[in-house]
Amino acid sequence: MSVDLLWLGLLHISLSALWQVADTQAAFTIDQVTLTVLPGNDVASGTNVILRCEAKVSHSHPQPLTYTFSFLQDDQVMYSKNISDSVVERGLSPARVSNSGRYQCTVRVFDKIKTSYSQALRVTGLQVPMLKVKSDIVSEGDDITATCIAPEETGSLIFLFYENNQEVKRVSSAANSVTTTLAMQKLADIYLHCNYMVLMHPTAGISNKSNTVKVIIRDLDEITPQIRIFSEVNVVEGDRVQIQCKVQNHSGLELFLTKGNTVLYKLHTTFTHSLTVRAEDSGEYVCKAEKGSVQKTAMYRLNVAELFSKPILRMSPGQVFEGERFTLTCSSAVSSLEKIKKVDIKYVLLKEDQRIYSGANYSATASPATNGKYSCMAVAKGVNKTSQPLHSKAKVPVSYPVIRAVEKVIVGQPFKVSCEAENGTLPITYTLLKDHVSVDEKRAEAAHKALFSINSISHPEEIYRFTCQAHNQGPSIKKNSQSLRTDVIVPVSKPVLEPQDFTITEGLDLTLICTVQKGTFPITYTWYHKSAPISFSTQEVRSLEGRYTVKAIERHQRGDYYCEASNYDTEIKRSFSARIGVSLAVWKKVLIGVFCILLLVAIAIVLTVFLKKMSKPRIKKQATELSVKASRPKSGDPMRMSLTLDIEDNTALNGTPCVMGRNVWSEHVSGSDSDDHTDEDSELVQPQEADPSREVSVKKSIEPEYSGQHTEVQVSTPGVSEQAEGQAALEYAQLNNSEQEPA
């Protein structure tokens, strides 16, 4: 049987799946969804409103479609329904203000959804609420229980409660009614009413007020207490006083006895409180009965006279130094002589609230052990009073101060010193002394030292003339320090650089010495060349003299040098510049000399070769024999023959006069000498044949004279020239005569 049911279930599921597949394969479209509000969009509260949603769908499905309708109010779904009809309605009966809003209708067919246009529904008018109270007669202090109802109203509401037309409370509720408790504002009859407003639609306003309910407040006079004090007429410290607090109705109340903010006693019924009074017990006592929020009080003022005054503790002397004696005295005045006498008052001395001495006077020697908080207690007839505390601390006498320099001391510059006493109670007065004369004074309130400024000192030994003094009114009065001892820095003087204006040979070592006359060691020296610091030249030495050596100086290292000196970050002093010259090395000078000599020798050789080449043609011309030729006769022109002798003095070469000469016969024609000279030159280059007999005769006549002339004529000095000219003229005349003889 179970197997058959299983097969039937599987068959049903298969058919349903096939049907759904057929449905999904059918064609359809949602044409339109329309939402209608009936009877209209604006209605009064209580009207029956119908929301009508209609869907128009085009489809090819043979069976009716299933529609899913959803109604939305302000985008929140308020109602949904699955139906095969294309129209569905939703009623709001009756419509209230909470139904106001914008509505839409959504239709879903299979996987397609379409939404209508929104429609606004405005419902106006609120219901008149109704107020009820649990009891209209309440006792003073009791709460009033009230309920406000808004019949047939829907939605979240805010209820407002009023006492005598004054709003006293607001309560929110999701229902159309609320119950709350109200506290009475004053002891009188109260008139209550309420109203409400819709939380989600505040623009709808507040409803009309409800009915008014009168609440009668009943006064609780039966719980009003009474207070009484049983004592003598004049109450004095030490008297026993009884205070009674009484009430008629004890039901559900609490009874308190208070003074100021202090509760002295508490009970739920009438009671009596007893105490031994003191002067500070004077004041107002209150008996208070409390039931719920209702309080009733009764008050009584008690005055207590002093038996004796509050003791006063004094120390003498007021300020005490360690090692000095001091006395503590406790005293009190009798206020009620009829009760006690002065001798009846006993005193106890307390230190740190511990009893240390019985009596009015206490003496001790001040020390660190006696420092602390003291007080005294006066006791009489069971009354004890304690004085105000007295804090005692023995002052410490000032110790010998120590004077120190707090910064570098540099001659000629201001500096600061401190004067400090290691021990001593503040305030301490410090005085700076120079040669035991006060220079400055300062009072130290918060520290054990004082700082003084000193303008300057002119020399190191002046530092020992400063001392300081300290005092704090102690028994030893004033204490003086030792003399100030500290290192004094003497700034360096203006340095001097040596050598000055010195010339050194290239390649040698140059030692620059920078010297100062004074200055505290160590001193830092730096050398500069042409205003630039020399690399690795800075040195710190414990000497008044610094040395820097320029190894194997070169020509480019000549120029101006200077040095700077300083110590301990004082002012840097600079020397005057020294000009250092660098001459050439000896081997360079020798090389230049050799080069010059070789250059001169080369020039001499060139000149000698040149002169020899120039003298060879002249020697050849001088060796040529004198040639004589006859000028061609010209009509009217006399024939003229000239002899030219060239004489060269070769004495410088061989020491023997040497005469080289040549005879040149020239024929001068009156007229253009230049033309004749040209012709003669051409004739000398290409001589014509002469008559042999004529030539022979000429040679014979010339040879003797030429031979004589050759040995006699030597021109090397000025005065001989005239003789040479005369001799030449004589030779010319002899030659001319010898030529004319054959004619």
UniProtKB/TrEMBL annotation:
Keyword flag Signal: yes
Residues of the signal sequence?
1-26
Which ranges are annotated Basic and acidic residues under compositional bias? 691-703
Instruction: Extract the InterPro entries matched here.
Output: Ig-like_dom, Ig-like_dom_sf, Ig-like_fold, Ig_Fc_receptor, Ig_sub, Ig_sub2, IL-40-like_Ig
Q: Which residues form the Ig-like domain?
A: 31-124, 225-303, 401-485, 491-577
Q: Where are the transmembrane segments?
A: 590-611
**One GO cellular component term:** external side of plasma membrane
Q: Name one GO biological process term.
A: cell surface receptor signaling pathway
Biased composition annotated in UniProt, kind: Polar residues: 708-720, 734-743
Report residue spans for region: Disordered.
Answer: 666-743
What name appears for this protein in its UniProt entry?
A: Ig-like domain-containing protein
Pfam families, A to Z: Ig_2 (PF13895), Ig_3 (PF13927), Ig_C17orf99 (PF17736)
Family matches, as PROSITE patterns: IG_LIKE (PS50835)
Is the keyword Signal assigned to this protein?
Answer: yes
Q: Which domain of life is it from?
A: Eukaryota
Please give the organism.
Answer: Culter alburnus
Key words of the record: Disulfide bond, Glycoprotein, Membrane, Signal, Transmembrane, Transmembrane helix
Annotated GO MF terms: transmembrane signaling receptor activity
